[in-house]
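Kinesin motor domain-containing protein
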Amino acid sequence: MDQIWDEDKFFRPSYVTSAELPQRTGPVSVEDIKADLSDEFSLVSSSSDTSQSKGHIEVCLRVRPFTLLEKENESQVPPKNSLNRLSEKTAGQQIQKFTFSQVFGPETTQEEFFEGTMKQPVQDFLEGYNRLIFTYGVTNAGKTYTFLGTEDDIGVLPRTMDMLFKSIQGRLYPGMDLKPHRCRDDVKLTKDQVREETAIKNSLLRLTKEVEERFFL
């Protein structure tokens, strides 16, 4: 049986060709598709929470001490009552208030900061939970110092690695004959290959040391 194509019946206006669209005759009711998702999201939040974590994200503020230059120029900083020159409405728009999970003052040591912020997330990670830590702030806020630290006073990253490796002592592979291959594989090296890899590594380390001595001494 031949099929009859009814153009009027199957006509659909095209947005591409800017065809004339049918006029809306009245308001469209969306009550049947409206839904309050707040309860569902709260259930997801509570189910994804662990005993180690009481919220989605924790924000810790660390206030660094003033530098010598900042102390010298402290007298040039405008006084706090300078806002009185502005109208009350304008001043209210410029002042913002924030709430932090924890606040660490200028006297906080690297060890105290690690104990108060990183130790528990690292412990959670060792127990199988995913944790993401990052630093955020303006230039010269102290992010690098907090994250890496110095040789004499290391930051949260070296302390984290130290904690991780200490936790797996006695379970490390003692050999040096495995080499990563691509993303998820490894290859087992022969004795000759191990000696070759060791020579390459030592050569790179000597080159790095020479570059550091040339540019930083």
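thats it. Residues 174-217 form one domain. Confidence is low (pLDDT under 50) at residues 14-18, 47-53. bye
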